Please model this.
Amino acid sequence: MRQLAVLGTFAVVAVGGGLLVANRDSRAQQTTPSVPDSVAAIVIAAGDTSSLEGPRQPIFFRHDIHAGQFKIDCQYCHYSVSVSSEPGIPSVQTCMGCHQAIAGTDSSARREIRKLRTYWNNREQPDSAKLEWTRIHTLARHVRFPHSLHIKAMGPKACGTCHGDVARMAQVFEVNNVNNMGFCISCHLQRNVPRDCSVCHY
Model:
């Protein structure tokens, strides 16, 4: 009988202690300040993109999830931007580096990731469709804009200067008219860099 009483007392103390710890942990989570820049992306299905700005893409790629919510650096995917004139479109292999393991958290994301995996699995087939993204920003052919020089001069976070806050875009669209010479000239004026014609037209 004494053993039952001791065991009962021990159980009550253990449960009470567990509740106190759980309460303390939940209070700690409530008082921990959230990172102001870490905003969860809105839930939206690929079929609901007609109201979004910008062109529909073959895969509904969410920059607001990848660059915004998960804070993946632009140059992780656009890896040639710091060494090349062109930023480059990420290869399917780059995407599959993560999406071999990550399958998506909801049915819409899983459907889009399945499309990506299908492109990847069929890449060797001669009659398979290729993943062709719709280009958003296009410069006139007589304009030279070396991305690498701009990244070197302005730093790796310079992308938003021309492309806008891509980390908040569910579907990327053109924020600034990069073909408007005045847009480029005003940027050069602000930063006191050369505006000679040969800088961009060579």
The chain has a mean pLDDT of 80. DSSP finds nine helices and no strands in the chain. The radius of gyration is 25 Å. Residues 2-31 form the longest helix (30 residues).
